[in-house]
Amino acid sequence: MRSTLSLSLFLTLATVARAQIAPxxxxxxxxxxxxxxxxxxxxxxxxxxxxxxxxNLVDYRPRSTVAAAPxxxxxxxxxxxxxxxxxxxSLGSLAAIRALxxxxxxxxxxxxxxxxxxxxxxxxxxxxxxxxxxxxxxRIKLMAGYDFRxxxxxxAAKAVKQLEADVAAGAVAVGEIQQGFGxxxxxxxxxxxxxxxxxxxxxxxxxxxxxxxxxxxxxDPAQFFEPIDANNERWLELSLFPGRxxxxxxxxxxxxxxxxxxxxxxxQPRTTFVxxxxxxxxNDVPRLRALFDKYPNVYSEIGAVLYEIGRQxxxxxxxxxxxxxxxxxxxxxxxxxxYPYFWRVLESRDDYFDYxxxxxxxxxxxxxxxxxxxxxxxxxxxxxxxxxx
Length: 389
Ligand SMILES: [Zn+2]
What we know:
Blueprint: H1 2-19, E1 26-28, E2 40-43, E3 46-48, E4 80-85, H2 94-107, E5 109-118, H3 120-131, E6 140-144, H4 155-168, E7 173-177, H5 180-183, H6 201-209, E8 214-216, H7 235-240, H8 254-267, E9 273-275, H9 285-294, E10 298-301, H10 306-311, H11 313-322, E11 327-328, H12 339-347, H13 372-386
Parallel strand pairs: 4-5, 5-6, 6-7, 7-8, 8-9, 9-10, 10-11
Antiparallel strand pairs: 1-3, 2-3
Helix pairs in contact: 4-6
């Protein structure tokens, strides 16, 4: 009874507190202080509430008035290797493989590396199917994937044997190792498998010996580890896909994973690692630079993080110019209509245009206007150098 009373009292007070700011009303705050909820800073120290009911976050879609030619460029300027391909169903039949070739042609994607973790019989069968389509034989490369569950002292020997067989069957890299590794995958003894677990060392060493680069997705956007509130940049995404949130009670912290990841790179200097999605450090370009400087065996791919590159065009122009050999083009989710956004950000000097997933980024993107020599490296030369021949 008492708690019901105090709850209703609390609700009444909360309603009153919110209602205290009337439409159009002004509130003064200390210079530099944040305006109260429901108001907007209009001058230093002055906040005002809108006079009309504001549209909500989902429905607010202002049309840009910036005069700019729409980009209709479907094809990349130079032939591309997509390091982070997930063609999945498109490799299941000869007809599907041929159709995939036509789609890739329409975008000027010359090579797709399928990061779908094939191994053993499935890898061999897929390779054989691809090899039976002469025009596609050199255009689809396959990564090999391994099961990191139940790792113990005997795990590596078995995995290395499978890796050697997969190399013989034509795999060009290991991957994509997915984010479960580090976040939730358990060892045979029930503990969390850390990224730098010593039981895995012989496997990474075998990757180096066999010249197999390792394509690894560690963690997820840092915002997924933070509270879902009005300060979280990914509030909309977390609200649309609540399963993407990593509750600290259940999962290691973002920084714990970064520490383990970097320790893995340090312990295995002869193994080449390609981090997926700019390592989810795309919002921190100085950190990326430090990573490239500290670990010469580390490369990055840019799948699904175009919104980070496009919102920091100068920082990324510098990054691409300083590390043109360390960044690989990759797309992730196979949606042909989304590739031209990448061409536009990397190639054009366009200002203020939309990203393809409004729930990833409520901001606009800008073109980097990268020079041809850098584009060629990022689009294909770096991938050609790294993948196993
Ligand atoms: Zn992927």
